[in-house]
Amino acid sequence: MSRSADNGIERTEFSLPEEAKTPSPLSPSPELSAGQVPGDSDVEGSLRPKTLEEFIGQRKVRAQLDLVLGGARARGVSPDHVLLAGPPGLGKTTMAMIIAQELGTSLRMTSGPALERAGDLAAMLSNLMEGDVLFIDEIHRIARPAEEMLYMAMEDFRVDVIVGKGPGATSIPIEIAPFTLVGATTRAGMLTGPLRDRFGFTAQMEFYDVADLTEVVTRTAGILDVDITPEAAREVASRSRGTPRIANRLLRRVRDFADVNTAGEVTLAVAREALVVFDVDDLGLDRLDRGVLDALVRGHGGGPVGVSTLALAVGEEPSTVEEVCEPYLVRAGMIARTPRGRVATARAWRHMGLTAPPEAPGE
């Protein structure tokens, strides 16, 4: 690290290892993945808020849930089943934990892919105590036999277990204690109609704005004992794609950089330098995002281009480009989806340092 003065303005320069300066192959950046990656669960447990008041952002959802839970507590009954829908990393699991905490009951957790047979679900439901909260993550991926059993459990608090096979098979009804199901899904459109209709309350989780994410970063920094300035916290938040999980992950990477280069102090200059090292630009784009834009703009004149062609240009699978890169690029106004293919917007041209042609969509 070195310091220099130019026209009375002090500038700080950080020396990076040679391997950090070498461009890496295009691939999805784990820092900017909204899904859980190895190491997240060890840290997220200590960062999760415990009450609705502590939960940052999602004001409408918090207000609605406060009414639903408050009304149920006043009547002394279990609240309606709750569906939490929205992109990954916005706090659906945390919200399920808060619901159980607010109700003062136990939380049982599982996931849709883990419920392959109806018997798996029946065993879990039969062990619930009255008022318990059952949380099923990625509920749209639950197996059909288990889903059909869930219908009766949600409506009548009863399941029918089939014993035997063929003509001698009998159905044994099993009463289960009244409970509240909290389902989380990143793809609400994949839920079947009968399952979706059995939820009494649906909460749509939205992406965070920079102000709320700055508050998230500041809170996390306090818990992790990171010395960060307000300007640096806002810088990290502005590059986090509107997702708290990404904001927390970027803060941990900035902390690593600061511990090595500045004895732990995170200023605006340190945050920016750290994010350069991890290939996160000022709009939250990583190497793969910029590679897709470069292929679209420089390689194909702005499009229209199919996803398979873009994937071939960056050496990735089409599903990776479509599911990892494209959603944020569309939301950031960089790509427009048309019937003929993907088209670069005027903003994408400017971001790549080029002049947009007159026919480019956007301003």
Automatic annotation (TrEMBL):
Residues 1-46 are annotated as: Disordered. Keywords: ATP-binding, Cytoplasm, DNA damage, DNA recombination, DNA repair, DNA-binding, Helicase, Hydrolase, Nucleotide-binding. GO terms for cellular component: cytoplasm; Holliday junction resolvase complex. Residues 282-363 are annotated as: Head domain (RuvB-H). Residues 8-21 have a biased composition (Basic and acidic residues). Residues 78-211 form the AAA+ ATPase domain. DNA binds at R337, R342. It catalyses: ATP + H2O = ADP + phosphate + H(+). The RuvA-RuvB-RuvC complex processes Holliday junction (HJ) DNA during genetic recombination and DNA repair, while the RuvA-RuvB complex plays an important role in the rescue of blocked DNA replication forks via replication fork reversal (RFR). RuvA specifically binds to HJ cruciform DNA, conferring on it an open structure. The RuvB hexamer acts as an ATP-dependent pump, pulling dsDNA into and through the RuvAB complex. RuvB forms 2 homohexamers on either side of HJ DNA bound by 1 or 2 RuvA tetramers; 4 subunits per hexamer contact DNA at a time. HAMAP family: DNA_HJ_migration_RuvB. Belongs to the RuvB family. This is Holliday junction branch migration complex subunit RuvB. It comes from Corynebacterium heidelbergense.
